[in-house]
Inverse folding.
């Protein structure tokens, strides 16, 4: 069980949704887990529940991230923090572009840049990137979100190349719709998001996504699970629009 090969993990976006479930899963498997996000109160509650170590900071602040990592040796990095904003590139405001690129892509690149060399030197590590079906398929919605997730798909592939010859594994987890706070934050109304996106749908539970990560980590050390797409059975990507011009 490679869980026993690892001592420490760092999970971004740990205060809610999939991230909190990942912390639960990793601590239950005996790892010392560093839980990162901005909401200090939620992280403290998670720490009280799981024994994780809370780091309340904004991952888009490179100085704060470097200071946190300086004394740490991280075996498992999970880039999970993510934001989405309403609108495509024709309607998105400047903040929406910058925030999504900064959280979903730039911060993750820095975290990999800062942790991968240690993993390679120790010949032991695992990087897990939580991307999205938005990175693999085109469907109506947010241009920037799709772009950042597609970029993280290639970051996952290229990190494997960067780590060539070392016992460092890289896994991309590609979820479809999961029941979390993400849509409520997009539309600014948790109850409305519950009605619009979750009521009556059999969405993924956060434990389903955490279970996929547990499988990837739990495989023998010589096995690299490169990508797991995990979707609700009743959610199917694909489709094609063809607008008819008449007159
Ligand atoms: N839910 C879905 O349907 C779905 C589908 C596919 C992929 N995903 C992906 O799954 C991942 C987790 O999303 P979720 O659904 O669990 O969303 P969520 O419930 O909204 O949680 C997002 C997490 O990201 C953290 N975060 C946001 N900005 C941050 C920042 N600047 N610094 C530090 N932490 C930050 C939030 O914590 P703070 O606010 O406390 O900072 C929160 O813990 C994301 O990458 C998302 O794109 C979700």
């Amino acid at each position: 069980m490679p869980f026993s090969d690892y001592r420490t993990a760092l999970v971004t976006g740990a205060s809610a949704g999939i991230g909190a479930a990942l912390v639960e899963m990793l601590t239950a498997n005996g790892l010392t887990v560093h839980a990162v996000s901005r909401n200090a109160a939620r992280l403290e509650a998670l720490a009280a529940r799981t024994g994780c170590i809370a780091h309340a900071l904004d991952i888009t602040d490179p100085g704060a991230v470097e200071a946190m990592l300086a004394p740490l040796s991280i075996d498992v990095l999970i880039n999970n923090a993510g934001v989405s904003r309403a609108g495509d590139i024709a309607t998105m405001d400047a903040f929406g572009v910058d925030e999504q690129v900064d959280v979903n892509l730039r911060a993750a690149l820095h975290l990999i840049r800062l942790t991968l060399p240690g993993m390679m030197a120790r010949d032991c590590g695992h990087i897990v990137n939580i991307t999205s079906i938005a990175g693999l398929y085109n469907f109506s919605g947010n241009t920037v979100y799709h772009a950042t997730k597609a970029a993280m798909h290639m970051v996952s592939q290229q990190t494997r190349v960067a780590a060539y010859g070392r016992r460092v594994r890289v896994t991309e987890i590609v979820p479809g719709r999961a029941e979390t706070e993400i849509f409520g934050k997009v539309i600014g109304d948790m109850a409305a998001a519950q009605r619009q996106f979750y009521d009556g749908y059999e969405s993924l539970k956060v434990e389903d996504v955490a279970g996929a990560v547990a499988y990837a980590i739990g495989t023998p050390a010589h096995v690299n699970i490169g990508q797991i797409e995990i979707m609700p059975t009743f959610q199917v990507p694909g489709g094609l629009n063809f607008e008819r011009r008449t007159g």
User: Anything to note?
Assistant: The pocket of NAP is lined by residues 12-19, 37-39, 58-60, 80-83, 103, 130, 132, 175, 177-178, 180-182, 185 (CB under 6 Å). The first strand starts at residue 8 and ends at 12. The two ends are 66 Å apart (CA to CA). DSSP finds eight helices and seven strands in the chain.
